[in-house]
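Can't paste images in this forum, so I'm doing it all in text. The chain is below; anyone willing to post the predicted structure tokens underneath?
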Amino acid sequence: IGFHEDALHRSCAPGHLTASCWVVDHEGDRGLILYHAKIKRWVQPGGHADGDANLASVALREATEETGIEHLEVWPIPIDIDIHLFVNRAQVEPDHLHHDLRFLVRAPRGARFAGNHESEELRWVGPADLDSVELDLDVSTVRLAEAAFATVRLLS
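Text version of the structure:
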């Protein structure tokens, strides 16, 4: 197994570390998904580490940027890990692996999302929505959501 000194950077062409999260509302009943402008799918907030080894902080930063919700709280222990091929349908960069650590993030009471340029739409979803044909959530996104909802129950 080779070691990549730039694993926290996009320059690591074979694959690099990313962080994402399942953002739950204050009560923990719903999670926030976004329709990603580049990949044209419903996904959870997340992004590249860009040199930051504190991946919980990366997940929190990305959630704040992508949802527009201030005062989010991150649970610092990852609840899921996923390795997936990032296929760039916009063909802006080559396809590559994301080694994604995934976290639970809680929104403050009454939070309203605003989104940013990375998403075309945002939506709160409950556990019953995870198998929606309309949303067509990736199996790893469903796994993350289920882990997040289970973690919320354990922490309550």
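The chain has a mean pLDDT of 89. Helices lie at 55-67, 139-155.
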